[in-house]
Amino acid sequence: MNSIQDIWNGIMEILSGRLTSTSINTWFSDCTPIELKDGTLVLHTTTPFKRDILKQRFEPEIKAALQEMFSCEFELLILAGDELDDYQAEAKEEHALPEMDGYTFDNFIVGKSNEYAYAAAQGVVKNPGSKVYNPLFIYGNSGLGKTHLLCAIGTAIHENTPDAKIAYVKGEEFTNKMVRSIKEGTADEFRQKYRGVDLFLVDDIQFIAGKEATQEEFFHTFNSIYEAGHQIVITSDRPPIDMLRLDDRLRTRFEGGLMADVQPPDVETRMAIIRNKAGHLGMQLSDDIVSYIAQKITSNVRQIEGVINRLTAFRELTGDVVTREKVDDAVKVVIRDGVYVPTPDVILEETARFYQVSAEDIKGISRQKNIVTARHITAYLIRNLTNQTLPMIGTFLNRDHATVLASIRKIEGQIKSDKDLSATIRDITSNINSRQ
Ligand code: ADP
Ligand code: MG
């Protein structure tokens, strides 16, 4: 038994022997398990009223069921409605503390493709806040070690100066938190939180491009940290010049420090990475297999890791030696024909995120302008990035295939003359590809 859903099913099975089915239907039908962590079971339900009833009436039963299943005591935390968002945002923040990711300079393999970025990152650690490296802007495609370097900087600075205030935030999370703080009237706290840090690590800044209010806030945050002589490190999937909808003031700031790119590793570096990752998992691979993997996967370290993980699992399950055929199997799962094909869901999510609407809005009936545009773009991108047919796209978006076709035509027509639209589509496509 491992997944939280399995555990929850186990609990419900026990409870169904003890409670009436009316109780179960009324109080548990919209109760979902979130996680079991640090001795606490976290549940979510829709309303505060249900939360209170669950807590008052059923807490002892739920705890008893857990006791039966695991022979130890658990706490219970029940969240209602959007309390879950706060809970998850906090958990993410906790998790996001750089020292927790285990990304260090020691386990980063250096080669020609990343030595400049690596040296710059170490420069920051030696001399944080120095004008030469402030900000340090690391850019490059997905899976090439940007987040790893960013976290390594955080880990090292934390070790050198445990009192340093370090904030790690993803571009997208910055946006979400800012929007939420405005809604909740806590914008001031939000500002203070980031403006007072010694080291500001911003991962995947590309997500804020094109979002005006976020860029404005980010600009002020950036300035106050910079003017206090504190260090800023930013990663992005592309250089500032290619972030077409980036505010010019931010572009100037980003370009005013040091920019370092990470490229796909060359074959020797790939082989070193493969040996290193396999070694960490207690697996020694023959030279032939190492170089075979290095030939097969050329442009993304995350994919290399995916293959090694699969091979480790295979070896543990069967005890057999890893052959080239096994490598082929593992590679096939990680990359299909060398091209990443996103799912319609990923395309939908990324388009929705870009327009700050929900996926349901796009699939729904609203005629609000930005939702309609997002809907057209989703259809267009699914058509262009996957091999889905018009009827399939129609089913996915709750439309008939003629409507889908009209959406696609509309975008195809506009994209030629509308620079902003083509920049938007490029940004969304890039965000989609960075999810591979
Ligand atoms: P990015 O942020 O550029 O998309 P990540 O930093 O998340 O990429 O790297 C993807 C995975 O590959 C991570 O698990 C990371 O540890 C690993 N990785 C990337 N580059 C290297 C490297 N040079 N040496 C060791 N591991 C690496
Ligand atoms: Mg990253």
Topology:
Layout: H1 4-16, H2 21-28, E1 32-37, E2 40-45, H3 48-70, E3 75-80, H4 83-96, H5 115-126, E4 136-139, H6 146-160, E5 166-170, H7 171-183, H8 187-195, E6 199-203, H9 212-227, E7 231-236, H10 248-255, E8 258-261, H11 267-280, H12 287-296, H13 301-318, H14 324-334, H15 344-355, H16 359-363, H17 369-385, H18 390-397, H19 401-415, H20 419-433
Parallel strand pairs: 2-3, 4-7, 4-8, 5-6, 6-7
Antiparallel strand pairs: 1-2
Helix pairs in contact: 1-3, 5-6, 7-8, 11-12, 11-13, 12-14, 13-14, 15-17, 15-20, 17-18, 17-19, 18-19
Magnesium ion binds near residues 146, 147, 203 and 204.
**C-alpha geometry:** globular
Number of helices: 20
Order of helices and strands: HHEEHEHHEHEHHEHEHEHHHHHHHHHH
Look at the helices and sheets and give the structural class.
alpha/beta
The end-to-end span amounts to 29 Å
Mean pLDDT: 90
Major sheet, described briefly?
Answer: 5 strands, parallel
Helical residues, percent: 55-70%
Characterization of the model:
This protein has helices at residues 4-16, 21-28, 48-70, 83-96, 115-126, 146-160, 171-183, 187-195, 212-227, 248-255, 267-280, 287-296, 301-318, 324-334, 344-355, 359-363, 369-385, 390-397, 401-415, 419-433; strands at 32-37, 40-45, 75-80, 136-139, 166-170, 199-203, 231-236, 258-261. The longest helix has 23 residues, at 48-70. Helix 1 (4-16) packs across helix 3 and helix 7 runs antiparallel to helix 8 (187-195). Strand 6 (199-203), helix 9 (212-227) and strand 7 form a beta-alpha-beta unit. The strands form two sheets. A five-stranded parallel sheet has the order 5-6-7-4-8, with helices on both faces. The chain is 59% helix and 10% strand. The mean pLDDT is 90. The structure holds adenosine-5'-diphosphate and magnesium ion. Residues 146-147, 203-204 line the site of magnesium ion (MG).
